[in-house]
Amino acid sequence: MTPSPPKGMTPLARREARLAWGLLAPTLISVAAVVVLPLLAVFWISFKPIGLADLRPPQVLIRESLRDRDGALTVEYRLRNSSQDVEIRNVVLTDTLPEGVRVAGALPGPCHLNDAGLICSFDSVPGGFRDRLRFAVEADDPEHAEELVELSEPQIRGTAPNVLTNLTFTTENFRKVFDGGQFLNVLGVTLFYTIFGTVGALVVGLMAALLLNKSFKGQGILRGLYLFPYVAPIIAVAFSWLILFDPFSGSANALLIQMGVTEEAINFFGEKPLALIMVTVFEIWRYFPLSFLFILARMQSIDSEMYEAADMDGASPFQKFWYLSLPQLLGILSVLFLLRFIWTFNKFDDIFLLTGGNAGTRTLTVDVYEQAFAISNIGAGAAVAVVIFLCLLLFSVFFFRVMSREEGL
Amino acid sequence: MKLFYWGWLTGAILGALWMLTVATTIAVVMSFATGEAFRPQLWYCTLWGLVFGRPYDRPRSLLINVPLFAAVMGYFSNYQIGSLAFDADIFSPSAILSILTLSLAFLGGMRIIYGDLPSGPLTRHEFEDAVIRFLTGFGYIFFTAIVAIPFYVMVMTSLKNQQQLVANPLDFSLDLSQGWGLFRSYVELFRDFNFGTYLLNSLIISVLTVVITLAFSIPGAYAVARLRFKGQALFSRSILLIYMVPIIVLALPIYIAFSMTGLRNTFVGILLIYPVTTIPVALYMLQGYFRGLPYEVEEAGLMDGLSRLAVIWKITLPLALPALASVSLYVFMIAWNEFLLAFMLLDDPSKFTLTRGISSLNSSEIPRQHLMAGSVVATVPIMALFLGLERFMTKGLTAGSVKG
Question: Which region is the signal sequence (chain B) (predicted)?
């Protein structure tokens, strides 16, 4: 018998794999629950005719009261369908009559008594339905009858069609999203914001990195300072910018007027082309630190011998930058470009806080919010979200091509 | 290009540009500091720069030059350069101060920019060196200004009151005689607007997010880094994909689900979501670090009879403490700064986090020094953490997405 390498997995390897999956399980489960499930839900909802109001399923609201008219006691149930147009089926009302209270007259049509108490059933309660059920009762102790009757809460059940889970689908949401010139407009704004925001942050970050790529006293302090915009809470810096550039009492306008740059105050975040430029500038300002940090880290790992050799050959500073540094940085720059591109594309908070999507700054992500919550059409919001997701899928295919080449992942 | 390789020409142009930079900077600084009107006179500045910017073969000491230059400039400028107040007089302290600073910054800066630049013909090397030194100086001023100004405005606005702000939006000088009265907005925030609760909520949520994230990502990262199993490569590659799903896309179904299950307005709901947004990146950062640790130590542990979990607990984690610190800081920062989910999922003021609390201050009825004071309250803790542990933080930020 000739010895041969073991086929398949050895028991040890199997145990290792099992342990690995065990260790990964919490992450996988939580990610599946919070990321994958909602993503699938978005697809589902985008084909649903659903508004913000449909989130609460329609139900029959009920109020019980006991009236005392000259010693004649009447129990009254007031019923109302919470929805104006959705029918609720198989509605059953149950209530117990307390001890010492008895039904005295005829019960209204849909009701009858049994051991447990009162049962009223309706086959169907149409939208906008309102009704009162009244019947006379007699009580041993009329003084406290009201308390007694109202002590037992009436129970009501019914089945209403749930827009979220039933099988009615519509493509209306997508039609609404793509119809009209608005979608192209939104797409254009998104692309402008994403491309210029990304490139701007990279270029500014590169400049900052060049500036700090030498050791001197205070380099650490400056580096820390230049990271501030990224580290501070978005809401704090966004509001600072709003107040700084306020058209009525902002310092920036006061400064510009005083320096004679402009005659009257500029409405930075309220005018059409300017607002988009301003939110892009804000994006650059807030995220240049990130690219600055990565580029600086890469720069400091470049071999200094190369520069010494270049010096010997008489290369000028610009030549050294162009022919030595830049090619070395190309890898990190392309990775950063793709990462930042995707993140800028996804960005919501910045524009939402600065302009709320007004004045020609509505990007796709802001559109999701506007459709779902401002116009209360959740289906349309989900449709936009699907569009975003498909774009991202496209980007990430591209991203992984480049990423694997640059990083050897 | 050859044309510019003359010391006097390069010097004059750089001089003019430097003069413009310095004059604008000082005008902005003085405006922000005093609230008076300072306006740089661009044409005069260009002229002064052109005339005095050229390099000298035998420069005199700054001690003599600066007052001389300031005097000449003050005399000729007819108070146009340093301070052009509508009626400010040249002998006001701020005008004298700004003229002197301007002279010092201009001459001193030029001295550095030129180095040993000759006034005659230049080599390409000398020319580019001078240009780069100018650009460096300009860069420091530019970057420091754009980063510092919004934060300066934030802090100063929070210390003022409504009338002062409307009367002169540029006036950020502080009336120190008020003493503690300066911090009126902060006192009101904590007394009338419940900011103490928000601060505590934010702290609890952020710390719990860090703990949960670590508890989930440490075993996961170890598995990806050390254990062999099918799909390992695919896994380590796709983990970052999750980071690319926009929160707003997830927020919509989460909002719906939470509305239906009553998880809105609860810490539990928030704590279900926050860690998941940070687990992928934490896992990615940690697995990179675990790979860099020597495997031999762990093998020795295994040989000596420790189980895998004991190895992780007793060997890997103590070795990875710096990485854990970085990851924790980074995750803390994300959770502390998170706005969108808090905004959508929290409506009950007793459950507000700081960011949600600040956004509730953004109404026309609440004066904006309160808004800015709230912003400062949210910014200061994260800045303090960041500055105190800058080394870990920078490492965390860089490891967050790219190796080496």
Answer: none
